[in-house]
Amino acid sequence: MNSLIEMLFLHRISKEILLERTKIAKDGYIELIPKESYAGGKYLLRPAGKSIVVSAANLSFRRPYEYLVKDQPEYFCIGLSPGFTGIGGAHVDKDKIYRRRLPTGFLHSGMGILFPPDFFDTFLNSRYGISPDEVVRAIDALGKFPLIPDAAVILKQIGGASFTGDVGNIWIEAKALELISVILDWHRRRERTAAPPLREQDRLGIAEAVHYAEEHFSGPLTLEVLAKQAAMSLSKFTALFRTHTGLSAASYIRRLRMDHAMHLLKNTAAPLSDIAGMAGYKHQSRFSTLFREQFGVTPSEFRKKK
Prior knowledge:
Number of domains: 2
Structural class: alpha+beta
Number of helices: 12
Radius of gyration: 20 Å
Oligomer: single chain
Distance between the termini: 32 Å
């Protein structure tokens, strides 16, 4: 069993009644299998090198479950949950004791990345001079406004990765750095502009618009439609979206479409004209132009290189 996963998880949950056993799953994941009397579903963990763990959970609890966490190693977590249009972050302090009670029917679903302190020492502080304290502040801020579309896209890419072995580790570490850079950029921009906090009604409205975009980007999606989903005027919606996410709503729609197109190019043999349509573009020429602007290569060149 990988020592990183043992350090972060097994020393804790193996002491609890929830865990039945572990097994090696596909794509390098380790599956933690709960006792059927307590929960059904899967909890997958994948170590990437010595400083990152990717987790993917889809558990449904059949009975109440209480646990106490102590002597927990320090780590940082950034995650994305289905049905929740945004990301969340947490810093787990090794000196604290955590208690939690999960009720019957509780759904533990989503994916994320866990970073032990070694990640910050190895990648951020020693190589780039970025203070770990700043990263902690940025991750803590995710709980106050967890709508960072670019970061959500990166987490979805990691969750759907097909790379394995050493190539997979390189790819995941690169994506982890990209994720941290997006969060730091968002946090610094917000600190500079001192944007006032959103009212809860407006935050929920933007979240609803983001969720709608994720479900309907392959169709004729417009900013007017998203503003209506957010229950805002077009001018208010576009202003709040850019201020609080660091990205224009139009750029976000394009990012969703390009990410989906890249997935299709990598994993299907569909003609480019069909991929353009599935990504939300009527004309293949327009799709190819935007794809090249986004990634520096045409769709056909990307497919050949892949």
